[in-house]
Specification:
This protein is mainly α. The protein has helices at about 1-40, 40-70, 75-80, 85-120, 125-135, 140-165, 180-200, 215-220, 235-255, and strands at about 205, 210-215, 230. The chain has two domains: about 1-135, no CATH class; about 140-260, no CATH class.
């Protein structure tokens, strides 16, 4: 049944996804054309549009999840002989798979634009590649890259999908689409406060050395350490919050479902 639902989701969302790709490719092509006459401005614009493809697809999946689970298309969705929990996790899995695909395409376009930009300003590509190879030789750097890639792919989808379910039940169900927005903004506000708190909490990850230091970011700034660092506590707090949201949403979607 999972494969059937995934295939159905692909057929149902293929047209709007292709529309997003078509618009992005058209704007990128126009930006590259502008870059021929105006130099790097067009290339930077093209790279920005490519980078926006990922959040655009994630937002599309969140809106589509709301419409297909609580909106106009919810009746057919809930007629399927599967539990609400399985529908939630399967739709989330589909969104992750499509987002990963779009993320790879977006990254390829950004790298291509970067190569064009370096060629425009007569940068020695051989030296650039040699420097990049030197940077990416440490395993810690690759671990950090994989971690941040998964973070960018998963956190927005998990938080938005969970917010849709939680914000469409209980006291928030009377607010229509406003319920999920309120839940998501509440999560966002709590995470901003957690980010401020993590500023004073060890440990931190040093991007330059790839090492974890048992000090706070406040201490790093106090001693004027030139190496960029990020507090790891914020990720732990995020994971706790996302786990709570997922458990709450999984339980809620198996209870009463109110169609809009």
């Amino acid at each position: 049944m999972t494969t059937t639902i995934l295939r159905h989701e692909l057929y149902r969302t293929l047209r709007p996804l292709l529309t997003i790709v078509g618009i992005a490719v058209l704007v990128i092509a126009l930006a590259d054309l502008v870059g021929i006459f105006m130099g790097g401005i067009g290339l930077v614009l093209a790279a920005m549009v490519a980078a926006m493809m990922l959040p655009a697809v994630q937002l599309f999946h969140a809106i589509d999840f709301y419409q297909s689970s609580y909106g106009s298309g919810a009746m057919l969705t809930h007629l399927l002989p599967v539990s609400g929990r399985k529908l939630f996790w399967t739709k989330l899995l589909y969104a992750v798979l499509i987002t990963t695909l779009f993320g790879a395409v977006s990254l390829a376009i950004i790298l291509f634009q970067a190569k064009l930009a370096m060629a425009t300003v007569d940068v020695n590509l051989t030296e650039v590649y040699a420097e990049l190879q030197h940077i990416f030789t440490t395993p810690q750097i690759w671990i950090a890259i994989v971690f941040f890639a998964l973070w960018v792919l998963l956190v927005p989808l998990v938080s938005m999908f969970s917010s849709v379910v939680i914000g469409s039940g209980g006291w928030a169900r009377r607010l229509s689409f406003g319920g999920p927005i309120i839940v998501f903004m509440s999560y966002y506000l709590v995470m901003q406060l957690a980010g401020v708190a993590s500023f004073f909490m060890p440990p931190v990850y040093d991007f330059f050395t790839g090492q974890v230091k048992i000090v706070s970011l406040w201490h790093v700034m106090a001693i004027n350490d030139p190496n960029p660092a990020v507090p790891l506590a914020i990720f732990g707090l995020h994971l706790v919050a996302l786990t709570v949201l997922l458990i709450w949403a999984t339980r809620a979607i198996n209870s009463k479902v109110e169609l809009r």
